[in-house]
Amino acid sequence: MPKATKESNASTPSGAKPSRKSGNPSKAAKTSTNSLNGQQPVVSRKVFVLDTSVILYDHSAIQNFQEHDVAIPITVLEELDNFKKGNDIKNFEAREFIRFIDKLSAEHRLQEWLPLNGKNKGFFKVLMNHETTEVNAINIFGDKNDHRILNSALRLQEEKPESKVVLVTKDINLRLKARALNITSEDYETGKIQDVAGLYTGNDTIEDVPAAAINELYEHNTCEPHKVLEAAPTDNHFFILKSFKNSVLAFYNASENLLERVDKISAYGIKPRNAEQAFALHALLNPAIKLVSIQGVAGTGKTLLALAGALEQRREYKQVYLARPVVPLSNKDIGYLPGDIKSKLNPYMEPLWDNLKYIQNQFQESSKEFQKLRDMVELEKLLITPLAYIRGRSLSNIIFIVDEAQNLTPHEVKTIISRAGENTKIIFTGDVYQIDTPYLDSQSNGLSYLIDRAKNHPLYAHITLLKGERSELANLANELL
């Protein structure tokens, strides 16, 4: 939700919950002309006008504005009607919101201010009129739905001059247009990560470690943490430990309260080329870790390591699932493409096939490993699956790799993880700075959300890959262009 300001009582996810008490009883007693069973909204509160993009991002958004009032333009309901059919998360969000509004207004008119369910909540209504008497967005920008939503906010400003009206939208361009019309406009920030630069990386380098501790790790493979660290580390955290003459890679096993040595072991022909890749493979191959995320720029080996780690464990699981969020070009859904579902998905899944071919080419065509990969694809032991159909399923005895996870919303990430059944491992890979979805950014995408919320959980491990290993030419692009 929008950030708190000095004149606002609205809180951010980390802010303190505001009080509904007013310092001026006479102001608190003022109300608008709409009523419901004698209850009326207090004009000293803000009124947040929500855009369609906010509802499709979080169907429960109207419940997240504390004591402030929330309004939905009728145009938003019209747009949601176009999203109610389908299997994508956005279709689910639209349906859930429509059901919520239907239940909320079962015995009342939506043109009245209806009290939202819950303690210290504000009021809600649908804005039916987008005709204005002064500034008119349609006259300035043209007649389209976004501009009708702007007009609804302008009309509300005219009707409630004593209240601060704020348009909340994930659409950056709509926010700019709103501000051009002197409408306060902000992003929806519930679930947003405030400090992406300080996002959990999963590993640290410790200098000046006692040589005896490093020797103990080499000799016995374990060491007590207090011999190296001043405080207890995060669960499943990785370390590069350095002394004057030597260094070692280590992992904190929280269940045993021990530092364990990490070796650079290969997985299905793929050997890690740097410390972070070794950490990633260690987490991927650790049966006690059921949820792994790998973050890094292009060429750092995220997808390749995830796929190699999954193939190395193929005997422990029934299937390996591969998936990527489908971000259509020119706003066309995959249904626009000809063919069956496999034909529609293939253009989007080529990067996964490229990595599979790279792993396969580590072996001779006559080798058992090469033939095993071919058999896994033919027998659908290695299967590409659309995320759109994940809802309602129970995924047991599988490894599920979700590539380009930065293009998922936090709710989509939660939906995928909640599908996990017995003996299932889920791997998310992506780059939080490379967003292809118009209403997400580095702070609000599902991968950033997962890394921030799941850190220090015994079932979860994360690693950020820093060094590009694709080629020197690819590194040049990442560093200089």
From TrEMBL:
Natural source organism: Pontibacter oryzae
All copies of domain PIN, residue ranges: 46-176
Entry-linked InterPro entries: P-loop_NTPase, PhoH, PhoH2-like, PIN-like_dom_sf, PIN_dom
Keywords, comma-separated and alphabetical: ATP-binding, Nucleotide-binding
CDD domains per UniProt: PIN_VapC_PhoHL-ATPase
Matches recorded under Gene3D superfamilies: 5'-nuclease, P-loop containing nucleotide triphosphate hydrolases
Keyword check for Nucleotide-binding: yes
Residue span of region Disordered: 1-37
One Pfam family here: PIN_4
Protein name listed in UniProt: PhoH family protein
Lineage: Bacteria, Pseudomonadati, Bacteroidota, Cytophagia, Cytophagales
Composition bias type Polar residues, residue spans: 21-37
GO annotation, cellular component aspect: cytosol
UniProt-recorded Gene Ontology molecular function terms: ATP binding
Similarity field: Belongs to the PhoH family. In the N-terminal section; belongs to the PINc/VapC protein family.
